[in-house]
Amino acid sequence: MGRKTKINAEDGKQELLITREFDLPLGLLFKAYTEPGLVEQWMGTKVLKLESKKHGSYQFETTDTEGKVAFRANGVIHEFVSNRKITRTFEIENAPFGVQLEFLEFEQLTDNTSKLNMRTIYESAALRNQVLQLPFAQGINMAHDRLQDILNNPDSYREK
Amino acid sequence: METRRDVFQAIADPTRRAILTLVALQAMTPGAIADRFDSSRQTISKHIQILTECRLLKQEESGREIYYHLNPKKMKEVANFIEPFRKMWDDRFNKLETVMKQSMKNLAHKEK
User: Fold this and answer.
1) Chain A hits for B79, Cβ within 8 Å
2) Of A17, A44, A117, B81, whose CA is between 20 and 30 Å from A8?
3) pLDDT digits (tens, 9 = 90+) for B20-76
């Protein structure tokens, strides 16, 4: 049952490969990447703009509960081959991660299943590793913050 | 109060996290590790000591040099640093699949 997402990140390289098989016909998988309303639903971000064509540009944005911008990313599409390939740049604004080059390849497996191979190239191996470990670091920070919180306010956690 | 050398305290420091990431890619000597940071050799040594005390780093002698390795068993307690990244994408792709399957259903209903 190999539907799990796989990450391939070789030591010292500045790229990584993300692969995943889907219980979806190829056309639907591709559509999920090209229609703004759909992208919003699964990426969990607002799509300010998405021109799904060669030389089109795109911009995503996430705001917090107070309407402040928490995340914004943009990029340009270099190659666009329907149901086959999207090549684009990807850049998170106001972040030290540089610009990424992404090669998204879409492949049919059977009538009802398909596969995505996403190859991302970073400006350096160090930047790739930073991006890779960010969720890990965030998770640790969250665990640590929670622990700190308990230590600073023992009364609120003590049984009454 | 005696400082407890537990894994989460060790990992709470950003420099120590950076050391772990370095050594995760390849075993390194203390000198090679210290070279990667602006801090003094002494400061880095202290960080390495903390990581070794809680068994996140293991020492191995090779000739006259000491090499530090990441201890995979201990790291598993804190989770593979790539796993949260993988899980983030896995969650997104699960959502993609759900959203698109729903759109298939909606289309089928409309055509009835």
Assistant:
1) 136, 139
2) A44
3) 888 888 899 999 999 999 999 999 999 999 999 988 899 999 999 999 998 877 776
Q: Is A29 on the interface with B (CB under 8 A)?
A: yes
Instruction: Enter the ipTM.
Output: 0.84
Contacting residues for B63 by C-beta, under 8 A, at least 6 apart = none
**Mutation for testing the A interface, residue in B93, B95, B99, B106 having most A CBs under 10 Å:** B93
> Using CB atoms within 10 A of its CB, is residue A28 exposed (0-12), middle (13-18) or buried (19+)?
buried
Both structure tokens of B22: 């370095």
Cα B31 to Cα B44: distance, rounded to the nearest angstrom: 9
Q: Shortest Cα distance from B92 to chain A (angstroms)? A: 6
Q: What is the pLDDT of residues A43-74, one digit of tens each?
A: 999 999 999 999 999 999 998 888 888 889 99
Contacts of A132 in chain B (CB under 8 A): 81-82, 85
- What is residue B28's DSSP assignment? B
From A10, which residue of chain B is nearest by alpha-carbon distance?
A: B25
Provide the whole-model pTM: 0.66
